[in-house]
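Example A, followed by Example B.
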Amino acid sequence: MRRTPPSFLDLNPLSPPPLFRPADLLSIPSKINEHIRSFRLTGAYHYAFIFDKILGIVAVGEDIGRHNAVDKAIGKAFLLDQPLGETLLFTTGRVTAEMVAKALRAGVPLLVSQGAALLGAIHLARTYNLGLIGFLRGRRFNLYTGEGWLKP
């Protein structure tokens, strides 16, 4: 049975104002440390966080599935009436094209992960000018797309 790929035709490209300094992004792992207790206990949870433009945590999603964690974090931000145009979405799992589409639909301009970004995610993020960062660990990260979202 063939699966039909998701349709991304209803997405709009983003226009980047510089929002975050690279050095500030490196502080994210220390900011989430107290929230990822279940992962440290079991190794089986994924987390997603919505951060505002001063890197304060707005919403947290936790689930065994990385996509569900993203849905929960975005949903909580919507319930709080949080404008998402100047936020970032951080996830602990690998980034898929579906996660990129979720960020775009929510209006989140920057998606950051401590894991890898899959090739389909990179292509989709580049097409719609979503900032995409992977392997945020220690004092480094990989910037795949969206250089305009970062301040010099």
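Example B, a separate protein, is given below in the same form.
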Amino acid sequence: MFLKSVGDMRTFTKVELARCNGRNGAPTFIAYERRFGAGNQREVSFPFSFQHHDTGTWFGGVGDIALGYKRLVFSSLRTGSILSVQGEAILPTGNRAGGFGTGVTVFETFASYGQLLPDKSFLQFQSGVELPTDTAKANRAVYWRTAFGKSLNQGMGLGRMWTPMVELLADRELATGEKTNWDLLPQFQVTLSRRQHIRANVGVRVPVNDFGSRPMQVMFYLLWDWFDGGLLEGWK
């Protein structure tokens, strides 16, 4: 799921819920992003999850909190293209023994590119690298993601907007014996409010290779662009 917005330098709060079929857990993320200046944005991502223990009990915990800064590199209304870069520091706030964190600070940087296509279609691309400060606890890794979609409007553009898309994801840990993991993620986003400032997205992440050890994931998120109004505004 295209979690890192390519070009939106706006103010919003996003709640993402991800369920992993075949695993005893449901990780959840709350992300807050706020623009400052003409092309800068700061981000805080707060993960937490609940897991089902072998003894039959449930327990929860906070994961590794991420602090990020995004910078707009260029954008063009004429060509419909935009490029941004982001750096993050992922802090070891989660309990590694309980499976809620890596136990090490990780620095992450990535670049994101978006391109508008004819007939309300779009293409997005993202590539980045993860650099832990202690490779004995976590491996360095690279990843890249590509998404293609199209927006469909109801009510002459004044009603609900549906955006089906498909995303191809790949990641690889930079360690001996590791291989590239490929996933396919069909999904769609829909606006819930008439003002279109509250949206929902649901998708299914399907492993393309090594699917015996990597289960299918059902993913869901809510996005509230509160710059355009409160939760109870813009529904009529």
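On Example B: The mean pLDDT is 84.
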